[in-house]
Amino acid sequence: MDQEKTGDNQGAGEQRVLVSTESPAINLERDAKGGIVVTRRPKVTLVMLSGGIDSVYTLVKLLRETRDEILVHHVDLINQEDRFRIEGKRCLEIVNYCRETYRDFSFSQSAVDHRGFRFFGYDMVTVGFEAGIVAHSYLMAKGRPVDRWTVGTCTEEGHWEERFKHVEACVAANCFPEAPPSFFLLPMVTKREEMDYLPERLVDICWTCRTPVKTEDGVEECGECKTCELMIDVRQERARALVAEPA
């Protein structure tokens, strides 16, 4: 995911097999005579949106390049880092932009409040827990499952496979007794490649700082957390490339 807990010993690890973005899902139903009717439908894909570059890139790519039914969910992670308000605000702006620019999709939100605890957990574990809630709720409401779910990441930040077994356990726990949706990642690209893929307006809306600093007008990036340090390098790289382009 694009914004992980500071201090996580995150590494790319072994990248899991990617699921095809185009293959349809299959419904099996019984007709009036008891026979089985097989129908094909678009996959139902859940995107967990943080408001950062990685998850927005993932959302836009799926909206543009698949016919999946897209569900988008944002979790307000309320803790000492105190970024949940600005992330939530930016996510609403991102959702509105993507609906107007690409196509419609379902959007939901939830909140997990860990203020007052010295340890407030790992973002991805909490996100997995909420993904299971969303998937189970969708099944109850629609009578069909969420086929797969995903988050955003990039080559610089990777995917911590060793920890992910705990994330998947959280998803499965909240889907029980039904099967959980499968997890997949889009092919990883660099943060700069993600930004180059997105419209500049959408890049500007994204929020990437883990520990925002309060100002008279709201908040601003701290410039010191690990995502700020990465974004400073990427923005400088993009600026140099822009200057180097022929007029």
Automatic annotation (TrEMBL):
It comes from the Bacteria. InterPro entries: Rossmann-like_a/b/a_fold. SUPFAM superfamilies: Adenine nucleotide alpha hydrolases-like. This is 7-cyano-7-deazaguanine synthase. It comes from Denitrobaculum tricleocarpae.
